[in-house]
Amino acid sequence: MNKVSEHLGYSQLSPTESTTKLQELLNSSQDQVFVAEWQGRIIGWLHLFYARRLASDNFYEIGGLVVSPESRGHGVGRALVQYAQAKNIGKFRVRCNEKRLDAHKFYESIGFESSKAQRVFQV
């Protein structure tokens, strides 16, 4: 999964860190991980989590979706999202960096609509 992730500039984790993070997600009741495989190789993955809100509707959020460059344009990302939607009934959201115009087009092409712009603050 690290090899696929590095194509979108996600920070590279050591194999130990990657395994630990994946195990945490797989052990979580709030998180799901789906992978796309072709000829014994992972060519894409999707991380989905359930977001509970006090003052608004709960929803599923795509925490990450990555498809290897050589597999893009073949419906892998679409299939991962559709599979996640089929397994989980409810509202879905995804946040995209404002610079990732290709991601915006992808999500719009599979039925997502832009609902707001926001800033992310962290300490």
Automatic annotation (TrEMBL):
PANTHER family reported for this sequence: AMINOALKYLPHOSPHONATE N-ACETYLTRANSFERASE-RELATED, AMINOALKYLPHOSPHONATE N-ACETYLTRANSFERASE-RELATED-RELATED
Q: What InterPro entries does the record tag this protein with? A: Acyl_CoA_acyltransferase, Bact_Acetyltransf, GNAT_dom
Q: What is this protein called?
A: GNAT family N-acetyltransferase
Looking up Gene3D superfamilies in the UniProt record yields: 3.40.630.30
The record lists the organism as Veronia nyctiphanis
UniProt keyword list:
Acyltransferase, Transferase
Tell me one GO molecular function of this protein. Answer: acyltransferase activity, transferring groups other than amino-acyl groups
What sequence ranges are listed for the domain N-acetyltransferase?
1-123
> What domain of life?
Bacteria
Pfam families noted in UniProt: Acetyltransf_7
